[in-house]
Amino acid sequence: MKLHYQTLLPQQYSKFSRVWIYQSARIFSIQEALEIESRLEQFAVNWKSHGDPVEATGLLLFRRFIIFIADESKVAVGGCSTDASVREIKNIEKEFSVSLFDRTQLSFFIKDKIEILPLAQLNYALEKNFLTKDTLYFNNTVQTLEELKTNWIIPIEKSWLEQKIAKA
């Protein structure tokens, strides 16, 4: 599995464009992925903030991560607009029977696969060498397009998880 995704991101958007990442508890089937991609595209095309169209993109990456990107250089995304995107994600959750809001589940790239591990098991996984400080982590806390490009998939030691690792 290759982790090249940057070319799929909108290149014309401001680097400060806002990003929201929702991680699926499982990989979507091809059929589900096609349906979800269509829904995300439809939502992004129709997304409005205070009646004005938001320049936005909705993506499904690696059949697991739903990402909304909104270029706020022209139209800012207000609270009601954000709520609309959350409603769309909740609808996807319900329709596909999957969790998309569980922030305690972390994704890592291990042996050419994306693996999920509960945050509570992080230290155990490191002690048993299932993970190392060099293991690639999907940092779903990124907030801008620039961060998505440069700091989304990073070694554990360069992420906020470094602070969570028990000191020996």
Over the alpha carbons, how many angstroms does the gyration radius reach? Answer: 17 Å
Number of distinct helices: 4
First-last Cα distance: 33 Å
Structural class: alpha+beta
- How is the biggest beta sheet arranged? 4 strands, antiparallel
Number of strand segments: 9
Mean of pLDDT: 94
Point out poorly predicted stretches.
none
**Strand-residue proportion:** 25-35%
> Assembly state here?
single chain
User: How many individual domains?
Assistant: 2
Layout of SSEs?
Blueprint: E1 18-23, H1 30-46, E2 48-49, E3 52-53, E4 55-61, E5 65-71, H2 79-96, E6 105-110, E7 113-118, H3 122-127, E8 136-138, H4 145-151, E9 153-155
Antiparallel strand pairs: 1-5, 2-3, 4-5, 6-7, 6-8, 8-9
Helix pairs in contact: 1-2
